[in-house]
Amino acid sequence: MEGIVLALFVCLVLAIITKYLSIPPIPFYILGGVLLGQSGLGLVTSTELSKFFSQMGLIFLLFFMGLELKLERISANRSAVITSGVIDLNINMLIGFLAAYFFGFSILESAIIASAFYVSSTAMAITSLIENRKLMLREAETIIWLMIFEDLVLIIFLAIISAGDQNPLIFFLKIAGVLAVLYLIAHYGKEFLISILDRSDELPILFTFGAVLTTASFSMYIGIPETLMVIALGAALATTDPDAFEAHARPFKDVFLVVFFVFFGITMNLSGGIDYFMITIISLLAVASKFISGILTGIFIHGSALSGIEIWGNTIGRGEFSIAIAALFGAPLVATVIAAMVIVTSIVGAFTAKYTGRLRRWMSAPGRRVHHHRGH
Amino acid sequence: MALRSVNLPGVGTKYEFVTEKGDTIAIFFTKTGTIQMYTLQGGCHTPSAAEMTPIEARRLGNILTGAIIEAESESVEIAFSAIADLRITIHTYTITKNIAGRTIEDLQIRTKTGVTVIAVSRKDKNIINPPPSFIFEVGDAVVVIGETDQLKKFERDVMVD
User: Fold this and answer.
1) Considering B65, B96, B116, which residue would you say is the last residue of a domain?
2) In A, which residues are within 8 Å of B27 by CB distance?
3) Is the pLDDT of residue A59 over 60?
4) pLDDT surpasses 50 at A99
């Protein structure tokens, strides 16, 4: 118990400092955790309670992701979403996979590293667009849809990896069964759900918490991944009143997710030593591969490589979903590589997001035309 | 002027329109609760942005529509180009308990100060041109019209009665 309190206190201080400097807090929570935990000072160890809290953090993160998944909106501008999504997926997955495989990871481990390498941090991208006042840029919408596309790929990835050695037919039947129940509840119980959410007492928040926990534990009980099912729950409830659900789930997500990040750092096992060379190369490649996919997306969608710089600058940061992948599937060495990549890319990303405007102006300045520039 | 509204997942709602002169204005109601307004002059590539709290945004809206709806005290001076020396001020006040329960007639507002109460906003209701028998309640936002001197007199003689 004292461990969690100490960890949360450290996170609170880190949150205040990072908000003040307007840089992403996630890498600092992880570093704070490493410092407090078994690979650092050894002040905090993982307990049953901290494990439960961390799991809640992950579950609420994914529930939130589900709430944001409004598939009908994607179909509105499908071709642009798919073009940018496919470019981003192919380039980053490929580079990530080859890099990991080159360093001697198994095919499965390489696939895990590749997907963590691929998925940018939605939270960081959106915060950076808002804080750096870039929402009006035409690239902003491309970036937002790219994040949604990545989330969809992540869901498919979770489904494939979690199926593991179960009988795939029974596995997918079970999933389809739960999905059907969730959508029937959301569809026929819509009026009832909205009447609960409209109340001003403790009922809405209790219901939200209960629904997420029940879905997660029921999924575990029947042997299907709870991660997928809470996303599905979020997507089903998004058809009723997503804003109300977000408002009620936000406090849980905010607190538990911080616990999740800091305990990810605390339980990180660095006893195998750190291969600084490999970590540096993979982190640099993570920055470079988003550059390639960003420039290509800029050229294909906006007809301008400079637009690509903007897309690159705001999507470098890997964050919550990469850590989630590491926590769910990563062996210690894989988790270390992913954590290092998150720390490097999110800090680099925070700076590039601030200065892409200046970079673009510099590159398009007359007399300094560089080969990236293709005009508007 | 075609207004385009888009719901951006994770961000909020965007409203955008192009003015007749070719400038673009975009407003974002973000999920963080703030409102961002961007303006992009026709032919330019870099928009300028301002971030507002909901209260500030409402205030901006009031200025743009030319109305005063807010309950707290503020004033607008009106000048007409054809009558250069005529300056009218419209001011809002909030009724405190020292004049609550009294009527416009009984306070002799117009005879004593020269100003006219043109509207009262009570909770969600607006009363335009309240009759002399109108009874004030604590928290009423009153809109008063007059010259600056008359308004000063109103503040001194009636509001602090």
Assistant:
1) B65
2) none
3) yes
4) yes
Residue A290: which of A160, A192, A150, A195 has the closest Cα? Answer: A150
- Would you say residue B20 lies in a domain? yes
Residue B110 lies in a domain: yes
* Chain-centroid distance, C-alpha A187: 28
A128 to chain B nearest CA, in Å?
A: 11
- Separation of alpha carbons A136 and B23, rounded Å: 13
Stronger pLDDT, A313 or B74, i.e. the higher one: A313
Domain span at residue A42 reads 2-364
The tokens describing A230, both together, are 């809470």
Q: How many helices (H) and strands (E) does chain B have?
A: 4, 10
Contacts of A65 in chain B (CB under 8 A): none
What ipTM was reported for this prediction?
0.75
Same domain, B40 and B116: no
Percent above pLDDT 70 for chain A: 94
The pLDDT value recorded for residue A217 is: 92
Closest Cβ–Cβ partner in A122, A133, A136 for B10: A122
pLDDT of residue A210: 93
User: Residue B1: pLDDT band by 50, 70, 90 thresholds?
Assistant: low
Domain count, chain B: 2
For residues B115 and B155, membership in a common domain is answered with yes
Same domain? For B60 and B93 the reply is: no
Residue A87 has pLDDT above 90, yes or no: yes
pLDDT, position A295: 94
Which residues in chain B are contacts of A68 at CB distance < 8 A? Answer: 9-10
Q: What residues make up the domain containing B50? A: 4-65
Residue A72: CA atoms inside 13 Å, Cβ hemisphere, count?
6
Considering the domain boundaries, does residue A373 fall inside one? no
Q: Are A133 and A71 in contact (CB under 8 A)?
A: no
Instruction: State the smallest CA–CA distance between residue B124 and chain A in angstroms.
Output: 21
Asked if the Cβ–Cβ distance from A122 to B49 is below 8 Å, we say: no
Number of structural domains chain A divides into:
1
* Residue B35 sits in the same domain as residue B16: yes
Q: Tens digits of per-residue pLDDT, A102-117?
A: 999 999 999 999 999 9
Taking the CA of residue B27 and the nearest CA in chain A, the distance in Å comes to 9
Q: Which of B8, B26, B36 is facing A144, going by the closest CB pair?
A: B8
Cβ-Cβ contacts under 8 Å, A136 against chain B: 16, 24, 26, 28, 38, 40, 47, 49
CA-to-CA dists, residue A289 to A100, A315, A355, angstroms: 14, 11, 19
Residue in B7, B11, B24 nearest the CB of A135: B11
Angle at A110 between CA A108 and CA A115, to 5 degrees: 100
* Position A351 in a domain: yes
Separation between Cα atoms, residue A323 and residue A105, nearest integer Å = 18
- What's the CATH code of the domain at A228? 1.20.1530.20
Question: Chain A: residue nearest B35 by CA?
Answer: A130
Closest partner CB to A136 (pick from B7, B34, B40): B40
